Amino acid sequence: MTQYIKDEKQRESWFKDQFYNPFEQSVTLEQVEAIVQDVSPETTEVIVAQLPARPWTGSGLSPQEMTVLNFFQDQGITDRAALATLMGNIKQESKFETNICEGGTRPGYNGCHRGGFGLIQWTTVGRYSGLGRHANQIGGNPDTLDTQLSYLVTEVEWKKVEHLFRRPGGSVGSYMNAAYRWLGWGVHGARTTYSHQYINKIVENK
Questions:
Q1: For residue 122, which of 23, 56, 82, 127 is within the disulfide window of CB 3.0 to 4.6 Å?
Q2: Taking a C-beta distance cutoff of 8 angstroms, is the pair 81, 170 a contact?
Q3: pTM
Q4: Which residues contact 83 (CB under 8 A, 6 or more apart)?
């Protein structure tokens, strides 16, 4: 892809349009230096290198599931068992329904007054309120998948275990231990069964 950009302000705007990530609040020119080469300073022609392909895709996954699978890969998680464990836990928590309240009702963020809410069933007052504040900060909707995913990776609970999911070579069991530290569930349910099912649904992206 080649673009011709006449002045610096237009060029910066183009960078932000091309590399806008809905899960980040801002993007700078420095952040895209690694994948942008200025090959003709006279005309400010830029060539954008192709981003690395995600190693995994889904077989028989819903659009919601595919979005989550791609999101975690973009966070640097590339082990199939790690991805499957994350997916299995989310299916146990919410079945990928972002407006669901604990118990199965779907009142949306502002209507869920007890129990967990959303993708990973945020339950404590701090985590639940944090989702609302995050949505306000980014101009998002706390009921949507994009907003909930972008909030998820800002939480300290996630940051404490993210490196464990990024470490390849583990088993579903080892990643499940990390998931417990992250979510602190009260009921294990079918999350291990779901995780093993996702092992078969996450296939090589050829």
A1: 127
A2: yes
A3: 0.76
A4: 56, 69, 72, 73, 77, 198, 202
Residue 191: CB atoms within 10 A of its CB come to 22
State the Cα–Cα distance between residues 206 and 204, nearest whole angstrom: 6
Question: Out of 25-29, 155-159, 191-195, which region has the weakest mean confidence (pLDDT)?
Answer: 25-29
Residue-wise pLDDT for 85-141, tens only, equals 999 999 999 999 999 999 888 999 999 988 999 999 999 999 999 999 999 999 999
Instruction: Please check whether residue 106 is in contact with residue 97, taking contact to mean a CB–CB distance below 8 angstroms.
Output: yes
CA dihedral 126, 123, 138, 23 (to 10 degrees): 120
pLDDT band at 28 (very low <50, low <70, confident <90, very high): very low
pLDDT band, very low/low/confident/very high, at 9 (cuts 50, 70, 90): low
How far CA 102 is from CA of 3, 16, 121, in Å, comes to 49, 38, 7
Phi-psi region of 139 (alpha: psi -120 to 50; beta: other; left: phi over 0): left
Distance CA 170, CA 190 (A): 20
Alpha carbon distance 78, 43 (integer Å): 39
Helix (H) or strand (E) holding 46: strand 45-48
Residue where the block lists tokens 């602190």? 184
Phi and psi torsions of 47, nearest 5° = -115, 130
